[in-house]
Each structure stands twice: as C-alpha cells, then as structure tokens.
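Internal QA ticket QA-208
Title: Verify multi-chain structure generation after dependency bump
Assignee: T.L.

Test input:
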Amino acid sequence: MSMRSRSVVTIADVARACGVGTMTVSRVINGKKHVSEAMVRRVEEAIARLNYQPNEAARTLKGRTSRTLGLIVPSLSDPFFSQCAHAVQQVAAEQGYMTMLFACEASHSVEAEELSQMRSRNIAGILIVPSSENSMEQLKELRRSGMPVVMMDRTIAGIDAGEVMVENLEGSFRATNHLIDHGHRRILCVGYDREYNSIGQRMDGYRKAMQTAGLQPQYLLVKRGVPVGPRVVAALRAVKPPTAIFSLNNVTSVAVLSALKREKIRIPEQVAMVGFDDFELASLLAVPLTAVRQPAAELGRQATRMLIDSLRSGSGNQQMSARIVLPTELILRQSCGCEPLAQITPLD
Amino acid sequence: MSMRSRSVVTIADVARACGVGTMTVSRVINGKKHVSEAMVRRVEEAIARLNYQPNEAARTLKGRTSRTLGLIVPSLSDPFFSQCAHAVQQVAAEQGYMTMLFACEASHSVEAEELSQMRSRNIAGILIVPSSENSMEQLKELRRSGMPVVMMDRTIAGIDAGEVMVENLEGSFRATNHLIDHGHRRILCVGYDREYNSIGQRMDGYRKAMQTAGLQPQYLLVKRGVPVGPRVVAALRAVKPPTAIFSLNNVTSVAVLSALKREKIRIPEQVAMVGFDDFELASLLAVPLTAVRQPAAELGRQATRMLIDSLRSGSGNQQMSARIVLPTELILRQSCGCEPLAQITPLD
DNA sequence: CTGAAAGCGCTTACAG
DNA sequence: CTGAAAGCGCTTACAG
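Actual output:
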C-alpha cells in the first residue's frame, strides 16, 4: 500500500511537543477534569498546531465500542426509507454519533453479512428496518451479547428490542372508510407482500373497515418481484369489478397508477384509489393521489433517540421494551373522488 | 457502560482452543498460504464453533487503514443522490469494502466535520459529491497525506482527485435544441444556483444551443433556498414572455411544475418545458416531463471502481488524474410539446 | 509449516 | 494536577 504517511501525528507527538505525558493529552482531549487551565491551553495549542486527530480505531480498541450507530434499511431508492435514514443521521450527528448506513436490498444474506460487519466494527448500537426473519437469530444473538437494537417501521416478534412503528391499522381503517364514504362497496386491497407485520396491520385496518360496513374484503396480493399492474387490470375487467382500490404501499401505488395509465382507465371515474404512504410528487400526478402519510423523518428521529438513550443509560444488557407508535394522516387529493379543490396539500 | 460482554471471543481464544499460536489463526483468517490443510480445517472449525469475529478496530490499528470507503453526498432525499449512493454501496460490498455514508446537507461545516471524522476513522478512500469550496482545503490536505479521493457528479478545481462526471453540456445542448426545434425562440433557463461546475456546464450547453440558433439566452437563477416558482410565474407574465423553460435540475423542475399547476398555466400549450435530470414519476405526472436522464447508478458504480482501483494499485500518493464522463440521454415525453404517444418511456 | 515478541495509538487503573 | 506501565486484539517482521 505504498508509503502512506496518513495521520502521522499521534498522541505521543502532541505529548512530546508539550513536554508532558500522553495521559495529560488524553485527559485534555476527553474533557476530563484534573488538568490545570494553563496545561489545557498548552495542549490544545499543540493539537491545533500539529493538526492532531485522535485515531478512532485505537480508541475503539480500548473502549470496546465506537461512537458509531449502524443503520440497516431495505433500500435507499425508496423515498420513505431515505427520508428516514436522513433523519437518523441528523439526530445521531447532533448527539455526537456517526452513522454507518447500509441498504440490504431486502436480501437476508446481505442483511446477515451487514449485521456481522457491524459486530466486528464495534458499532455502539443498531437501528434496523428488518427485512427478513432469517436474520432474526443473528439479531437475537447481538441482543444477548448486549448490543442495543431498535427496530423501526416494522418489527419481528421474539426479539427484545426497542420498537418505533406507525399507526398502520388506524391509517388503513381511515383510508378504507373514506372510500366507503364515497359510496364504494367493492374495494380491492392490493399489495406486494404480507411478510411484514406493518403490511399485516394495514390489511387488518382495511378488513376491519370493510367488515364494520358489512362489506366483503377482497385481496390481490402478489409476491415481491411479481408485477401487480397486469393483475389489477385483469381484476378490473372481471364480472363484478371493484370500484375502488386500496394500495398497501407506495411501490404498489406507483405500479397500479402506471398500469391504469397504460390501459387508459380513468381515476376516480372508473376506479377510485387511495394509497398507503405519501410521496413528494403525489400532488403533481395526472390524478393527485389521496394517501395515508407516514411521518418518515419522525420515525427515524424517535428511533435514534431511543437507541441513544439506551446507550447512555447503559441498559444494553437490560430489557429494551420501549415502544413508540406514531400517528398517520390521511391526505385527501383527487384519486379518491374528492373535488379538485377540496384540499390541495402538497407534501412539504 | 455496564458490563458489556460483546464479542468476547478473540483470536487468542481460538488459538487456545486449537492449541496453536495466534499467528496461525491470523494466517488462516487472512487466507495466507504456509498453513497445512489439516491446520486450516482445525482452525476454521474452531472459528465456527466459537463464533469468532475478528475485531476490525484492532486490524485497522495495525494496518493503518480499514476496508471502509467514505461517501459524502449532499442529501439522501434527492433520488439522484440516493440512487448513486446505492450503487456505490453495491459495488463496494462486492469488492469487500463497507461504505460509510454521510449526507452533508450542502453545509460546508457539516461536510468539514464529516471529512475529519473520516480521517480519524482510517477510511481507506473517499467518494464525494463536493458541496462547498470551503472543504477544498481539507480535501487537498487529505490528498496530500495520501488518501485517495474521487469526486462525482461535480468537481472542484485544484484538487488532485479522480473525477466521474456526466455530459452536462451535451445533454443541455440537445435539450435546448429540442425546444428550438419545436419552434421556440424565447427559452428561459431556470435554476437554483451556479455554484457547481455541473450546473455551469448545463448553462453552457443551453447558451451554446441558443447562440448557435441566433437566439438570446435568458436566465432566471435564484439562490438556494429562495423559491423559484413565483419568479417563473412572474417571468411568464412579463411583456414578451418565454414560451419554453429549460430547468437545470430536478429540484427546480418540481418547483416549476408545482408553481405552474398552482397558477393553472398549461404545459406545453402556454409554456413548454424540458428538465435536466429524470426521475421515476416523470411519466406519471399531469404532464409527463421531457427530461435529460443522467446515469445515476452508473455514476456511482464507475466512481467506486475508480477509487478501489487506486486503492489496490496503492497509488494513493501518486496523481489521481483519472477522469470519466458518462453520456446523458434526452427522454421525450409531453412537456416539450411532443405528441402523447410519440415515445412513452417510463423510468425503469 | 509454525510461533514468540513487539507494537499499532489510545485509555484505564494505579501511583505520586 | 501529572505520569509510567499495562493492555485492548490484531498483524508484521523475525526466527525456527
């Protein structure tokens, strides 16, 4: 690796420059008391002059844990997760923590690899949007060894970790009721998978609303990777077609919207639509989408605070039973059948 | 920090379990030769049984540089950057590197802090979408101390670093020409800032096209943070209003689109539009946006490869003059005035 | 093919 | 208030 001379300045150099022991320099760096004012100034001057930067690896090696948080999200291309990640990073930075961010692509082998990387890098704590039951064992073991963990957006049962969720059931319930209020009786619930409890809760909210109204729930669920668009179109061409669609997440909403556009099926005249998960451009679409807005940034913020709190209280080995559930909000636009000017709420 | 017992298993434990020296275990881990097959098996079995994970901090401390790449982007909420970041992470992971991802929020103080964090964490190399001239000094110093650096999307002069850019000038030239071909003579170039060379190149492409056609360039540039929407609307209400708009990036495009919608100004009838930077929902908008597509993922991929190459060749202390420029593509939709069915190209 | 020793840069008790 | 010594977990020469 050639003769890298990077970060040549060590604590010993600073100590030498001041004619003191390394201990004294260390104390100054770490803001410890028991150092005379004059000495503090002398050392700080030398640190500045030599442009000394403590070597984090060495600190970590002693302290056993670095001031770094690990964050695992399924993907960075989903704006929901990127907003969330963004918030995590901000709060962490404010509190003096760095964030190592990983996208696992919803693959459990990638997720597993990342978790093991985190362990070997002495991460202080983990924030995760869990993607796979398969990583559960690893997460459990991490918890057992005292690593604080907070799950966000969705959770996996049987893991003693902090949880920050969103009111999935309530949001879906309200969204579905809104469609029912518009007079719809055959409402199709469309989504990509039921493997996460967040999605499960959304389905429950939909079902509850339908049953409360004496209506028959109807589902169109496909495996991840299978295009929903064509299936939805087919469903709309059946004998007694649904007159409205409730979509379980933004990826599905976009897919459905694309398919409807391709087939020139008009919204809300031929089929009304409400989606779970709002996004920036929802109000600029051909038909502005009525959607359940989730507080993505707030989710990240709260989760980060929870994790840092448990780090500070040193409760790594204790139970991490904290649980926060954040409210969702139904943003009315036109895809549900509301009047164009009823309420134009751009995201942001 | 209570009695954390994390990662108790060390190389010494494994060595003891096998009745060998730590050196032998180290050799097995690092895939070194000079170890007997039988020994390799014995050690690997012990590693698996004890669930041993090498401590990265200790390795780093010895090797002076960790197998971690630092990535700084202005923001994660801009899909262009998040796609880019995503690609970086994938390529890095394939090559056995982790990525530390930071969003600097286009603030040079944040950027500076992140750069200094990277140094103290023995990052192997840096990938950066530079946000501020102010961090230039720091970047230069990092280079001087042998840290490989690759700038992507935009570059700052005077820094000896690898560069991966996009054909900004060519893309803008083609986009502007397309509007001219539609018969427009008064085309307004709208954007948020000219502080980056990428934006400068786009403006140059626009100007070149205008001048070549014997037309007068017209600019509407506002400082970051100042809303462009109202200004554009005002410009459209002037005496000889522009009949077309060329927007310099996606943030601006969305802002303009919102303003036009709010004012019920029809596209492309009242004003045509082409934007630099394509995005997923561009084809589902009320008026599908004609846009210059940049290869975001490819940008990240190439930059990462360039960085890792220079890491491998140990050329940290040498010149890093590699430079790659990737092509852009004009995606025709309807906002420019093309026929609805001319070419419907959804992103992805 | 295998191992004992030294040291990476820092901090943690322990003395003065 | 200040410092010398030991050690965190690993790898790098150097021997055998």
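Spot checks passed. Residues 221 and 267 of chain B are 21 Å apart (CA to CA).
Status: verified.
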